Sequence to fold (550 residues):
Amino acid sequence: MGIGTRRADAAVSPLPMNVPKYSRRVDERLENSSNDGNTYTMLLLTRGRMSDETQRSDSTASGPDMQRSDVGSEYTVVDTDCHFMEEMDDVAEYMDEPWRTRLLEGGEKATMMFFPEGSGDRFKWGKINRDHSGPTKYPHGGMHIDEIRPGMDHLNVDKTIQLSHLLLLTDKLSADDARISEFARGYVRYAKDTFLDPDDGIYTMAPVPYEDAEASLEILEMVEDDPGFVGAYLITPGSQLPLGNRKYEPIYERCEEIGMPCVFHSAGADIDSDNFPGYETMLATHTLGFLEHNMEQLTSLIVQGIPEKYPDLDIAFMECGVTWLASYLTRLDNNYLKRPEEAPHLERKPSEYAKEMYFGTQPFESNADPELLEGVFNVMDGANSFMYSSDWPHWDYDRPSMVTDLPFLSEEEKAKVLGENAEEVFGI
Amino acid sequence: MSDRVALGSADSLEPGDHELVTVDGQEFGVHNVDGEYFAILNRCAHDCGPVGEGTVRPKLVVDDADAGERERERWDEDTPTITCPWHGWSYELESGTHVGIDDVSLPTRDVVEEDGTLYLTE
Fold:
Protein backbone atom coordinates (compact mmCIF):
# COMPACT_ATOMS: atom_id res chain seq x y z
CA MET A 1 0.00 0.00 0.00
CA GLY A 2 1.11 3.52 -0.53
CA ILE A 3 1.09 5.21 2.83
CA GLY A 4 2.10 8.81 2.55
CA THR A 5 0.85 9.41 -0.94
CA ARG A 6 -1.83 11.78 0.27
CA ARG A 7 -1.43 14.70 2.59
CA ALA A 8 -3.98 15.70 5.16
CA ASP A 9 -4.15 19.21 3.85
CA ALA A 10 -4.93 18.09 0.33
CA ALA A 11 -8.28 19.14 -1.09
CA VAL A 12 -11.00 16.70 -0.16
CA SER A 13 -13.43 15.93 -2.92
CA PRO A 14 -17.05 16.16 -1.81
CA LEU A 15 -18.12 14.52 -5.01
CA PRO A 16 -17.26 10.84 -4.78
CA MET A 17 -17.24 9.70 -8.36
CA ASN A 18 -17.61 5.99 -7.61
CA VAL A 19 -20.66 5.95 -5.45
CA PRO A 20 -21.42 2.41 -4.34
CA LYS A 21 -24.89 1.00 -4.13
CA TYR A 22 -26.84 1.48 -0.95
CA SER A 23 -27.15 -1.72 0.99
CA ARG A 24 -30.58 -2.28 2.41
CA ARG A 25 -29.38 -5.59 3.85
CA VAL A 26 -27.02 -3.70 6.10
CA ASP A 27 -29.83 -1.64 7.53
CA GLU A 28 -31.85 -4.74 8.28
CA ARG A 29 -28.93 -6.26 10.11
CA LEU A 30 -28.31 -3.10 12.06
CA GLU A 31 -31.92 -2.94 13.17
CA ASN A 32 -31.31 -6.24 14.88
CA SER A 33 -28.00 -5.26 16.39
CA SER A 34 -27.55 -4.46 20.02
CA ASN A 35 -27.79 -0.89 21.25
CA ASP A 36 -27.65 0.90 24.53
CA GLY A 37 -31.24 2.04 24.46
CA ASN A 38 -30.35 5.63 23.75
CA THR A 39 -32.88 6.95 21.28
CA TYR A 40 -30.42 8.97 19.31
CA THR A 41 -27.98 6.13 19.07
CA MET A 42 -30.82 3.86 18.08
CA LEU A 43 -31.83 6.13 15.24
CA LEU A 44 -28.30 6.29 13.97
CA LEU A 45 -28.02 2.54 14.16
CA THR A 46 -31.20 1.92 12.24
CA ARG A 47 -30.10 4.40 9.65
CA GLY A 48 -26.83 2.59 9.18
CA ARG A 49 -24.78 5.51 10.40
CA MET A 50 -23.09 3.98 13.39
CA SER A 51 -20.45 1.33 13.49
CA ASP A 52 -20.37 -0.91 16.53
CA GLU A 53 -18.55 -4.05 17.43
CA THR A 54 -21.28 -6.13 15.83
CA GLN A 55 -20.50 -4.53 12.53
CA ARG A 56 -16.79 -4.72 12.95
CA SER A 57 -16.89 -8.49 12.87
CA ASP A 58 -18.72 -8.48 9.55
CA SER A 59 -16.59 -7.72 6.58
CA THR A 60 -19.42 -6.19 4.60
CA ALA A 61 -21.22 -4.27 7.27
CA SER A 62 -19.27 -1.07 7.47
CA GLY A 63 -16.85 -1.04 4.63
CA PRO A 64 -16.59 1.54 1.90
CA ASP A 65 -19.49 0.02 -0.02
CA MET A 66 -22.03 1.47 2.38
CA GLN A 67 -20.28 4.69 3.19
CA ARG A 68 -21.00 6.69 0.07
CA SER A 69 -24.41 5.24 -0.52
CA ASP A 70 -26.40 6.58 -3.43
CA VAL A 71 -29.56 6.61 -1.39
CA GLY A 72 -32.67 7.49 -3.22
CA SER A 73 -31.75 5.83 -6.49
CA GLU A 74 -34.93 3.75 -6.39
CA TYR A 75 -37.04 6.93 -6.36
CA THR A 76 -37.50 9.90 -8.64
CA VAL A 77 -35.86 12.60 -6.55
CA VAL A 78 -36.58 16.30 -7.03
CA ASP A 79 -34.36 18.77 -5.21
CA THR A 80 -36.60 21.74 -4.52
CA ASP A 81 -33.94 24.01 -3.02
CA CYS A 82 -30.48 23.74 -4.49
CA HIS A 83 -28.32 26.81 -4.92
CA PHE A 84 -26.51 28.05 -7.93
CA MET A 85 -23.54 30.03 -6.66
CA GLU A 86 -23.58 32.48 -9.51
CA GLU A 87 -20.80 35.02 -9.97
CA MET A 88 -21.87 38.64 -9.98
CA ASP A 89 -19.48 39.15 -12.89
CA ASP A 90 -21.45 36.67 -14.97
CA VAL A 91 -24.84 38.12 -14.10
CA ALA A 92 -23.58 41.65 -14.72
CA GLU A 93 -23.15 40.81 -18.39
CA TYR A 94 -26.93 40.50 -18.57
CA MET A 95 -27.86 43.56 -16.49
CA ASP A 96 -29.17 46.84 -17.85
CA GLU A 97 -27.14 50.01 -17.94
CA PRO A 98 -25.76 51.77 -16.03
CA TRP A 99 -25.23 48.79 -13.75
CA ARG A 100 -23.67 46.62 -16.43
CA THR A 101 -20.84 49.09 -17.03
CA ARG A 102 -20.48 49.93 -13.36
CA LEU A 103 -19.99 46.30 -12.39
CA LEU A 104 -17.97 45.12 -15.34
CA GLU A 105 -15.60 48.06 -15.26
CA GLY A 106 -15.56 48.47 -11.53
CA GLY A 107 -13.46 45.41 -10.97
CA GLU A 108 -13.68 42.81 -8.24
CA LYS A 109 -14.36 45.35 -5.53
CA ALA A 110 -17.42 46.65 -7.35
CA THR A 111 -18.96 43.21 -7.74
CA MET A 112 -18.01 42.06 -4.25
CA MET A 113 -19.64 45.13 -2.72
CA PHE A 114 -22.77 45.20 -4.84
CA PHE A 115 -24.63 43.34 -2.10
CA PRO A 116 -23.45 43.58 1.51
CA GLU A 117 -22.39 40.47 3.33
CA GLY A 118 -22.30 39.55 6.98
CA SER A 119 -19.53 38.19 9.11
CA GLY A 120 -18.93 34.65 10.20
CA ASP A 121 -17.79 31.59 8.28
CA ARG A 122 -20.45 29.04 7.49
CA PHE A 123 -17.71 26.61 6.47
CA LYS A 124 -16.31 26.39 9.98
CA TRP A 125 -13.13 28.26 9.22
CA GLY A 126 -12.01 25.87 6.53
CA LYS A 127 -13.13 22.58 8.02
CA ILE A 128 -16.15 22.01 5.76
CA ASN A 129 -15.07 21.65 2.16
CA ARG A 130 -16.70 21.85 -1.24
CA ASP A 131 -14.82 21.51 -4.47
CA HIS A 132 -16.19 24.80 -5.65
CA SER A 133 -17.21 28.21 -4.37
CA GLY A 134 -17.48 27.84 -0.65
CA PRO A 135 -14.06 27.93 0.96
CA THR A 136 -12.58 30.64 -1.17
CA LYS A 137 -15.27 32.95 -2.44
CA TYR A 138 -18.39 32.33 -0.37
CA PRO A 139 -20.77 34.11 -0.38
CA HIS A 140 -19.88 35.79 -3.64
CA GLY A 141 -20.42 32.89 -5.97
CA GLY A 142 -17.63 31.10 -7.69
CA MET A 143 -19.62 28.28 -9.23
CA HIS A 144 -19.51 27.36 -12.87
CA ILE A 145 -22.54 26.06 -14.70
CA ASP A 146 -20.64 22.85 -15.46
CA GLU A 147 -20.75 22.09 -11.74
CA ILE A 148 -24.53 21.72 -11.59
CA ARG A 149 -24.57 18.20 -12.96
CA PRO A 150 -21.79 16.84 -10.67
CA GLY A 151 -23.73 18.29 -7.75
CA MET A 152 -26.88 16.50 -8.87
CA ASP A 153 -24.90 13.28 -9.22
CA HIS A 154 -23.45 13.65 -5.74
CA LEU A 155 -26.95 14.09 -4.31
CA ASN A 156 -28.37 11.49 -6.67
CA VAL A 157 -31.29 13.68 -7.71
CA ASP A 158 -33.15 13.50 -11.01
CA LYS A 159 -34.44 17.06 -11.14
CA THR A 160 -33.04 20.16 -9.52
CA ILE A 161 -34.40 23.63 -8.88
CA GLN A 162 -31.38 25.91 -8.76
CA LEU A 163 -32.03 29.04 -6.75
CA SER A 164 -29.98 32.19 -6.99
CA HIS A 165 -27.45 32.38 -4.22
CA LEU A 166 -26.82 36.10 -4.53
CA LEU A 167 -30.47 36.96 -3.93
CA LEU A 168 -29.96 35.63 -0.41
CA LEU A 169 -27.67 38.58 0.29
CA THR A 170 -30.30 41.18 -0.50
CA ASP A 171 -31.97 41.00 2.89
CA LYS A 172 -29.54 43.58 4.19
CA LEU A 173 -30.75 46.17 1.70
CA SER A 174 -34.12 46.10 3.44
CA ALA A 175 -35.56 48.80 1.22
CA ASP A 176 -37.05 49.65 -2.15
CA ASP A 177 -33.60 49.45 -3.66
CA ALA A 178 -33.10 49.32 -7.43
CA ARG A 179 -30.13 47.00 -7.04
CA ILE A 180 -32.42 44.08 -6.27
CA SER A 181 -34.69 44.51 -9.28
CA GLU A 182 -31.73 45.22 -11.57
CA PHE A 183 -30.04 42.06 -10.36
CA ALA A 184 -33.25 40.05 -10.73
CA ARG A 185 -33.69 41.07 -14.38
CA GLY A 186 -30.07 40.22 -15.08
CA TYR A 187 -30.38 36.87 -13.33
CA VAL A 188 -33.44 35.88 -15.39
CA ARG A 189 -31.63 36.64 -18.65
CA TYR A 190 -28.47 34.93 -17.44
CA ALA A 191 -30.31 31.78 -16.37
CA LYS A 192 -32.20 31.57 -19.65
CA ASP A 193 -29.04 32.02 -21.66
CA THR A 194 -26.79 29.67 -19.74
CA PHE A 195 -27.78 26.87 -17.40
CA LEU A 196 -31.53 26.28 -17.64
CA ASP A 197 -32.26 22.91 -19.20
CA PRO A 198 -35.74 21.71 -18.27
CA ASP A 199 -35.51 18.79 -20.68
CA ASP A 200 -32.59 17.57 -18.59
CA GLY A 201 -34.18 18.37 -15.21
CA ILE A 202 -32.49 21.70 -14.46
CA TYR A 203 -34.87 24.48 -13.40
CA THR A 204 -34.79 27.72 -11.45
CA MET A 205 -37.20 30.28 -9.99
CA ALA A 206 -37.69 33.96 -10.68
CA PRO A 207 -36.13 36.22 -8.04
CA VAL A 208 -38.85 38.58 -6.87
CA PRO A 209 -37.79 42.12 -5.79
CA TYR A 210 -40.98 42.38 -3.78
CA GLU A 211 -40.48 45.92 -2.47
CA ASP A 212 -40.97 47.07 -6.08
CA ALA A 213 -44.30 45.64 -7.20
CA GLU A 214 -43.98 46.98 -10.73
CA ALA A 215 -40.57 45.39 -11.22
CA SER A 216 -41.83 42.16 -9.66
CA LEU A 217 -44.69 41.93 -12.15
CA GLU A 218 -42.31 42.70 -14.99
CA ILE A 219 -40.05 39.85 -13.93
CA LEU A 220 -42.98 37.46 -13.67
CA GLU A 221 -43.90 38.43 -17.21
CA MET A 222 -40.34 37.66 -18.33
CA VAL A 223 -40.59 34.08 -17.08
CA GLU A 224 -44.23 33.03 -17.17
CA ASP A 225 -43.98 31.23 -20.50
CA ASP A 226 -40.55 29.73 -19.87
CA PRO A 227 -40.69 26.12 -18.63
CA GLY A 228 -37.33 26.58 -16.92
CA PHE A 229 -38.85 28.94 -14.34
CA VAL A 230 -41.08 26.98 -12.00
CA GLY A 231 -41.71 29.38 -9.15
CA ALA A 232 -41.49 32.88 -7.72
CA TYR A 233 -38.63 33.11 -5.23
CA LEU A 234 -39.04 35.51 -2.29
CA ILE A 235 -36.59 35.71 0.58
CA THR A 236 -38.16 35.97 4.02
CA PRO A 237 -35.74 38.33 5.83
CA GLY A 238 -35.46 41.98 5.01
CA SER A 239 -38.97 42.92 3.92
CA GLN A 240 -40.03 46.43 4.89
CA LEU A 241 -43.38 45.09 5.98
CA PRO A 242 -44.48 41.55 6.78
CA LEU A 243 -45.15 39.79 3.49
CA GLY A 244 -48.86 39.35 4.17
CA ASN A 245 -49.25 43.11 3.84
CA ARG A 246 -51.55 44.42 1.09
CA LYS A 247 -48.51 46.04 -0.52
CA TYR A 248 -47.41 42.65 -1.82
CA GLU A 249 -50.81 41.38 -2.93
CA PRO A 250 -50.35 42.24 -6.63
CA ILE A 251 -47.50 39.72 -6.69
CA TYR A 252 -49.64 36.95 -5.20
CA GLU A 253 -52.55 37.85 -7.45
CA ARG A 254 -50.40 37.55 -10.56
CA CYS A 255 -48.74 34.34 -9.41
CA GLU A 256 -52.14 32.78 -8.83
CA GLU A 257 -53.27 33.88 -12.31
CA ILE A 258 -50.30 32.32 -14.07
CA GLY A 259 -50.11 29.25 -11.83
CA MET A 260 -46.71 30.15 -10.41
CA PRO A 261 -46.04 28.87 -6.87
CA CYS A 262 -44.67 31.41 -4.39
CA VAL A 263 -41.65 30.03 -2.59
CA PHE A 264 -40.55 31.82 0.57
CA HIS A 265 -36.94 31.13 1.40
CA SER A 266 -35.12 32.00 4.59
CA ALA A 267 -31.73 33.70 4.56
CA GLY A 268 -29.49 36.03 6.50
CA ALA A 269 -28.75 35.13 10.09
CA ASP A 270 -25.15 36.26 10.01
CA ILE A 271 -23.44 36.83 13.32
CA ASP A 272 -23.79 40.59 13.06
CA SER A 273 -27.38 40.49 11.86
CA ASP A 274 -29.50 43.39 12.99
CA ASN A 275 -31.94 40.87 14.39
CA PHE A 276 -29.44 39.52 16.87
CA PRO A 277 -27.11 42.18 18.20
CA GLY A 278 -24.56 40.79 20.58
CA TYR A 279 -24.54 37.20 19.46
CA GLU A 280 -21.06 35.97 18.64
CA THR A 281 -21.55 32.59 17.00
CA MET A 282 -23.22 31.28 13.89
CA LEU A 283 -24.44 28.36 15.96
CA ALA A 284 -26.73 30.82 17.70
CA THR A 285 -27.65 33.20 14.89
CA HIS A 286 -28.14 30.55 12.22
CA THR A 287 -30.36 28.52 14.54
CA LEU A 288 -32.44 31.56 15.40
CA GLY A 289 -32.47 33.47 12.15
CA PHE A 290 -33.51 30.91 9.59
CA LEU A 291 -36.38 29.90 11.82
CA GLU A 292 -37.42 33.39 12.83
CA HIS A 293 -37.63 34.79 9.31
CA ASN A 294 -39.85 32.02 8.00
CA MET A 295 -41.94 32.02 11.18
CA GLU A 296 -42.58 35.75 10.80
CA GLN A 297 -43.70 35.53 7.19
CA LEU A 298 -45.80 32.39 7.63
CA THR A 299 -47.61 34.18 10.44
CA SER A 300 -48.16 37.28 8.32
CA LEU A 301 -49.42 35.40 5.28
CA ILE A 302 -51.94 33.41 7.28
CA VAL A 303 -53.16 36.14 9.64
CA GLN A 304 -53.61 38.59 6.77
CA GLY A 305 -55.65 35.97 4.93
CA ILE A 306 -53.50 35.47 1.85
CA PRO A 307 -54.56 31.80 1.50
CA GLU A 308 -58.22 32.88 1.60
CA LYS A 309 -57.72 35.75 -0.84
CA TYR A 310 -55.74 33.61 -3.30
CA PRO A 311 -56.99 30.08 -2.73
CA ASP A 312 -55.36 28.67 -5.86
CA LEU A 313 -51.94 30.06 -5.02
CA ASP A 314 -49.43 27.37 -4.03
CA ILE A 315 -47.22 28.54 -1.17
CA ALA A 316 -43.99 26.88 -0.03
CA PHE A 317 -41.42 27.65 2.63
CA MET A 318 -37.78 26.65 2.41
CA GLU A 319 -34.85 26.12 4.70
CA CYS A 320 -35.74 25.96 8.32
CA GLY A 321 -36.50 22.27 8.82
CA VAL A 322 -39.87 20.89 9.86
CA THR A 323 -39.96 20.18 13.59
CA TRP A 324 -40.86 23.75 14.53
CA LEU A 325 -44.11 23.62 12.60
CA ALA A 326 -46.03 21.45 15.04
CA SER A 327 -45.25 23.48 18.12
CA TYR A 328 -45.46 26.88 16.47
CA LEU A 329 -48.78 26.31 14.73
CA THR A 330 -50.24 24.93 17.93
CA ARG A 331 -49.38 28.24 19.56
CA LEU A 332 -50.79 30.26 16.67
CA ASP A 333 -54.02 28.25 16.77
CA ASN A 334 -54.24 28.81 20.50
CA ASN A 335 -54.11 32.57 20.06
CA TYR A 336 -56.48 32.49 17.08
CA LEU A 337 -59.11 30.71 19.10
CA LYS A 338 -58.95 33.55 21.62
CA ARG A 339 -58.73 36.42 19.10
CA PRO A 340 -60.38 35.31 15.83
CA GLU A 341 -61.84 38.75 15.23
CA GLU A 342 -58.31 40.00 14.50
CA ALA A 343 -58.11 37.66 11.50
CA PRO A 344 -61.55 38.09 9.93
CA HIS A 345 -60.51 36.55 6.61
CA LEU A 346 -59.88 33.20 8.21
CA GLU A 347 -62.58 30.57 8.26
CA ARG A 348 -60.46 27.85 9.80
CA LYS A 349 -57.63 27.50 12.29
CA PRO A 350 -54.30 28.88 11.03
CA SER A 351 -52.74 25.44 11.11
CA GLU A 352 -55.32 24.22 8.60
CA TYR A 353 -54.02 26.74 6.08
CA ALA A 354 -50.42 25.82 6.83
CA LYS A 355 -51.17 22.17 6.15
CA GLU A 356 -52.19 23.15 2.64
CA MET A 357 -48.82 24.80 2.07
CA TYR A 358 -45.56 23.02 1.28
CA PHE A 359 -42.34 22.90 3.23
CA GLY A 360 -38.81 22.04 2.15
CA THR A 361 -37.25 19.48 4.47
CA GLN A 362 -33.76 20.94 4.79
CA PRO A 363 -32.11 21.24 7.27
CA PHE A 364 -33.89 18.11 8.31
CA GLU A 365 -33.62 17.42 12.04
CA SER A 366 -32.42 13.84 11.75
CA ASN A 367 -31.13 14.10 15.29
CA ALA A 368 -34.69 14.24 16.63
CA ASP A 369 -36.43 11.48 18.49
CA PRO A 370 -38.11 9.36 15.78
CA GLU A 371 -41.41 9.62 17.63
CA LEU A 372 -41.18 13.40 17.46
CA LEU A 373 -40.47 13.30 13.73
CA GLU A 374 -43.33 10.91 13.13
CA GLY A 375 -45.61 13.19 15.12
CA VAL A 376 -44.62 16.18 13.00
CA PHE A 377 -45.31 14.24 9.83
CA ASN A 378 -48.71 13.24 11.20
CA VAL A 379 -49.67 16.73 12.38
CA MET A 380 -48.56 18.43 9.17
CA ASP A 381 -49.63 15.70 6.76
CA GLY A 382 -45.97 15.70 5.84
CA ALA A 383 -46.24 12.87 3.35
CA ASN A 384 -48.27 15.21 1.16
CA SER A 385 -46.79 18.59 2.09
CA PHE A 386 -43.06 18.10 2.70
CA MET A 387 -40.65 18.23 -0.22
CA TYR A 388 -37.05 17.05 -0.20
CA SER A 389 -34.58 19.89 -0.52
CA SER A 390 -30.80 19.74 -0.32
CA ASP A 391 -29.53 23.33 0.01
CA TRP A 392 -26.42 22.07 -1.79
CA PRO A 393 -23.68 23.31 -1.83
CA HIS A 394 -24.26 25.22 1.38
CA TRP A 395 -22.66 24.11 4.62
CA ASP A 396 -25.60 22.19 6.10
CA TYR A 397 -26.92 20.48 2.98
CA ASP A 398 -28.98 17.29 3.12
CA ARG A 399 -28.88 14.20 0.96
CA PRO A 400 -32.01 12.15 0.17
CA SER A 401 -30.90 9.82 2.96
CA MET A 402 -32.66 12.19 5.34
CA VAL A 403 -35.93 10.90 3.87
CA THR A 404 -35.11 7.37 2.79
CA ASP A 405 -33.95 6.50 6.29
CA LEU A 406 -37.17 7.47 8.04
CA PRO A 407 -38.53 4.25 9.54
CA PHE A 408 -42.14 5.40 9.84
CA LEU A 409 -42.73 6.35 6.19
CA SER A 410 -44.04 3.84 3.67
CA GLU A 411 -42.35 3.49 0.32
CA GLU A 412 -45.21 5.42 -1.27
CA GLU A 413 -44.84 8.23 1.25
CA LYS A 414 -41.10 8.44 0.69
CA ALA A 415 -41.71 8.70 -3.04
CA LYS A 416 -44.06 11.62 -2.44
CA VAL A 417 -41.66 13.54 -0.20
CA LEU A 418 -38.67 12.84 -2.40
CA GLY A 419 -40.27 13.84 -5.67
CA GLU A 420 -43.95 13.45 -6.36
CA ASN A 421 -45.11 16.37 -4.22
CA ALA A 422 -42.63 18.66 -5.95
CA GLU A 423 -43.57 17.39 -9.40
CA GLU A 424 -47.17 18.31 -8.68
CA VAL A 425 -46.46 21.72 -7.10
CA PHE A 426 -43.98 22.86 -9.73
CA GLY A 427 -45.50 21.08 -12.70
CA ILE A 428 -42.28 19.34 -13.62
CA MET B 1 -10.09 -8.54 12.34
CA SER B 2 -6.56 -9.83 12.69
CA ASP B 3 -4.68 -8.74 15.80
CA ARG B 4 -2.26 -6.65 13.84
CA VAL B 5 -2.16 -5.51 10.23
CA ALA B 6 0.93 -4.06 8.60
CA LEU B 7 0.22 -0.76 6.90
CA GLY B 8 3.57 0.10 5.34
CA SER B 9 6.68 2.09 5.94
CA ALA B 10 6.46 4.70 8.67
CA ASP B 11 8.77 6.94 6.68
CA SER B 12 6.17 7.37 4.00
CA LEU B 13 3.57 8.83 6.37
CA GLU B 14 5.07 12.13 7.39
CA PRO B 15 3.58 14.55 9.93
CA GLY B 16 0.51 16.12 8.38
CA ASP B 17 -0.02 13.19 6.04
CA HIS B 18 -2.95 10.85 6.02
CA GLU B 19 -3.83 7.71 4.14
CA LEU B 20 -6.96 5.61 3.77
CA VAL B 21 -6.58 1.93 4.49
CA THR B 22 -9.14 -0.84 4.29
CA VAL B 23 -8.88 -3.60 6.82
CA ASP B 24 -11.38 -6.43 7.08
CA GLY B 25 -13.82 -4.45 4.97
CA GLN B 26 -13.59 -1.29 7.05
CA GLU B 27 -11.96 1.87 5.78
CA PHE B 28 -9.89 3.93 8.21
CA GLY B 29 -8.19 7.27 7.89
CA VAL B 30 -4.67 6.91 9.27
CA HIS B 31 -3.09 10.18 10.33
CA ASN B 32 0.34 11.28 11.42
CA VAL B 33 -0.19 14.23 13.75
CA ASP B 34 3.18 15.64 14.75
CA GLY B 35 4.70 12.16 14.91
CA GLU B 36 1.78 10.53 16.69
CA TYR B 37 -0.37 8.11 14.72
CA PHE B 38 -4.15 7.78 14.79
CA ALA B 39 -6.72 5.73 12.87
CA ILE B 40 -10.43 6.51 12.75
CA LEU B 41 -13.24 4.95 10.74
CA ASN B 42 -13.78 6.82 7.48
CA ARG B 43 -17.54 7.03 7.86
CA CYS B 44 -19.23 9.85 9.70
CA ALA B 45 -22.00 8.92 12.14
CA HIS B 46 -24.15 11.70 10.69
CA ASP B 47 -24.46 10.83 7.02
CA CYS B 48 -21.63 8.48 6.09
CA GLY B 49 -19.32 11.31 4.99
CA PRO B 50 -15.56 10.81 4.53
CA VAL B 51 -14.58 11.99 7.98
CA GLY B 52 -11.30 10.07 7.86
CA GLU B 53 -10.11 12.49 5.19
CA GLY B 54 -11.13 15.57 7.13
CA THR B 55 -9.19 18.49 8.50
CA VAL B 56 -7.22 17.78 11.68
CA ARG B 57 -6.93 20.54 14.24
CA PRO B 58 -6.43 20.69 18.00
CA LYS B 59 -9.53 20.69 20.15
CA LEU B 60 -10.76 24.13 21.08
CA VAL B 61 -11.25 24.59 24.81
CA VAL B 62 -12.11 27.51 27.03
CA ASP B 63 -10.60 28.33 30.38
CA ASP B 64 -12.77 29.40 33.27
CA ALA B 65 -12.80 33.09 34.03
CA ASP B 66 -14.11 35.19 36.87
CA ALA B 67 -17.73 36.28 36.59
CA GLY B 68 -17.99 39.08 34.05
CA GLU B 69 -14.55 38.45 32.60
CA ARG B 70 -14.19 37.37 28.98
CA GLU B 71 -13.20 33.72 28.76
CA ARG B 72 -10.19 32.86 26.65
CA GLU B 73 -10.46 30.19 23.99
CA ARG B 74 -7.34 28.21 23.19
CA TRP B 75 -6.20 25.12 21.35
CA ASP B 76 -5.62 21.96 23.38
CA GLU B 77 -2.60 20.72 21.46
CA ASP B 78 -2.77 17.34 23.20
CA THR B 79 -6.22 16.53 21.81
CA PRO B 80 -6.34 16.46 18.02
CA THR B 81 -9.77 16.44 16.39
CA ILE B 82 -10.94 15.60 12.91
CA THR B 83 -13.90 17.17 11.07
CA CYS B 84 -16.08 15.60 8.42
CA PRO B 85 -15.80 17.77 5.30
CA TRP B 86 -19.44 17.20 4.37
CA HIS B 87 -21.29 18.77 7.31
CA GLY B 88 -18.79 19.51 10.04
CA TRP B 89 -19.33 16.76 12.61
CA SER B 90 -16.09 16.63 14.59
CA TYR B 91 -14.48 13.87 16.65
CA GLU B 92 -11.51 13.47 18.94
CA LEU B 93 -9.00 11.49 16.93
CA GLU B 94 -7.76 9.32 19.77
CA SER B 95 -11.07 8.31 21.33
CA GLY B 96 -13.36 8.76 18.33
CA THR B 97 -15.83 10.60 20.57
CA HIS B 98 -17.91 13.40 19.05
CA VAL B 99 -16.57 16.75 20.22
CA GLY B 100 -19.99 17.95 21.33
CA ILE B 101 -21.64 14.89 22.88
CA ASP B 102 -20.31 11.79 24.55
CA ASP B 103 -22.78 9.21 23.32
CA VAL B 104 -21.75 9.29 19.68
CA SER B 105 -18.37 7.96 18.75
CA LEU B 106 -16.58 6.39 15.83
CA PRO B 107 -14.37 3.32 16.06
CA THR B 108 -10.69 4.06 16.27
CA ARG B 109 -7.65 1.80 16.08
CA ASP B 110 -4.22 2.05 17.59
CA VAL B 111 -1.37 2.51 15.18
CA VAL B 112 2.06 1.40 16.34
CA GLU B 113 5.46 1.66 14.73
CA GLU B 114 7.84 -1.27 14.97
CA ASP B 115 11.13 -1.51 13.10
CA GLY B 116 10.08 1.24 10.73
CA THR B 117 6.74 -0.35 9.87
CA LEU B 118 3.31 0.88 10.90
CA TYR B 119 0.76 -1.60 12.18
CA LEU B 120 -2.96 -1.18 12.81
CA THR B 121 -4.01 -2.99 15.96
CA GLU B 122 -7.27 -3.71 17.75
